Amino acid sequence: MSVDKIVRWFMPKEERFHELLALDTKNLVKAARLFKEIAELTSLEERRVKAIVLKGIEHDGDGITRQIFEALNSTFITPLDREDIRSIAMDIDDILDYLEGVAQYLILFELSESPTVLRQFAEILVAMTEAIDHATGLVWDLSNEKKIGDAIVRISELENQADLLYNGVIADLFKGKRDPVEILKWKEVYQGLEDACDTCKDYTHILGNVVVKNA
Q: Which of the four pLDDT bands, split at 50, 70 and 90, describes residue 15?
């Protein structure tokens, strides 16, 4: 093997990671938008059908995550810190898992209602994942530092909204005379959504680290 070929082998494969992470974040947005549709439905059967589709999207996400890890294992020099890329992929995977998990709760618990808070959480998660997709596409050019910062602030604001929603709905669940089983069912649903929003916020810490390390 010539010296030139050896050098090219060890050069950063930026396009490879750029492409994979773009696929990953766009798949996440697709999942969040589908979850929003599920949240807006009032037919358990229709929810069941769309939950199957969402499971397929989650499966696609698992495949992309595996490709990212394989790329990390086969690339000597990475365009961003190796652990940052790994953390990015894991957080995206976790958010997707929460979305799919909550959809499954709605089916398993036979919850056909579409409360306002459920729809609001879904809207927040769509906005958060869209901001994640946008910001992740900017990290390859750190002259976009301000735009990345704006996206981080936006996600933080949305997470604060989600916290207020969660605290309010949990308080409401335990007011008055409600069926304890129904309380527990909805608590699981809202906890999963809160966890998804928290992980979106955690994701911004990774992006912030990337900016600082590469400034």
A: low
